[in-house]
């Protein structure tokens, strides 16, 4: 994992002064991270070329030019068939809107995940399954099922999880998790965690979640935060001991904190932990691939990390807009 950590830090520095007027720090770090996870130095030229391609192929007010524009450009720039995948992403995005999903940053990333990970012939079926998972959860939790569930629903739709039994499993997890984790956390985050755990098969993972969460808290690694709680679900499903998770997360967090651009005044604790967790998951993904639930979860990991990062970017945008409005009124 050390080479990937170093590459992530180097990539972060390389992109730091690029895209000055169009992107926030979280989006740049996400770009640096995904290049590092692919074992590549960040290619700013390829990202700019892809960003320009997106601009040329979308309207002036397209959401693809908004908050998630750089993230989409980053992911596409890593693909040899980026034009085809982007065309499919636009098509899937329209299909999702026709399926009564609301235009949003979350929908953009859900569309990309479907386009990048499924064949064109399957898009209609996956969109229908995405809607079915969403409606199923909405029927149980009307107020907390919203746009931030779109990516999770898409990930579930791409899996082999049956919709009816999957929704029941999610509901079962929510009931169990809310009792021990829900006092200080939003229902949306608990639901996101439940959605991730449902990808892990029929065996109940609640006890492992509680045990791992307590172990992490004892070691001052607090993943039980609203924006990143679903990442706890991925760690729970990995066939790795709690001691290994704690040791490597601690080492990676401490390493990142010593690097330029990752200090406490620049990056909050939960964001550093997200990066540390992503690097850890990437380093242990081969162990998962030999496991029975390999194909489902290894395909889903990127989507879940993207969901967490999208939530952070959206939260930062809301905070920035609120601050600007407050400043303008004084």
Describe the overall structure.
It comes from bioreactor metagenome. InterPro entries: DUF4003. It is a single chain. The protein is mainly alpha-helical and 330 residues long. It folds into 3 domains: 1-78; 92-158, no CATH class; 162-317, no CATH class. It is 70% helix and 0% strand. It is built from 15 helices and no strands. It has helices at 2-15, 25-37, 44-56, 69-77, 82-98, 105-117, 123-140, 150-158, 163-181, 187-198, 206-218, 229-237, 242-257, 269-289, 294-329. Helix 1 packs antiparallel against helix 2 (25-37). The chain starts with a helix and ends with a helix.
How do the helices and strands follow one another from N- to C-terminus?
HHHHHHHHHHHHHHH
Oligomerization status of the protein chains: single chain
Largest sheet: none
Number of domains: 3
Average pLDDT taken over every residue: 88
Strand % is under 5%
So what's the overall shape? globular
CA radius of gyration is 19 Å
Q: Provide the helix percentage.
A: over 70%
- What is the straight-line distance between the termini? 49 Å
Query: Class by helix and strand content?
Result: mainly alpha
The total count of strands amounts to 0
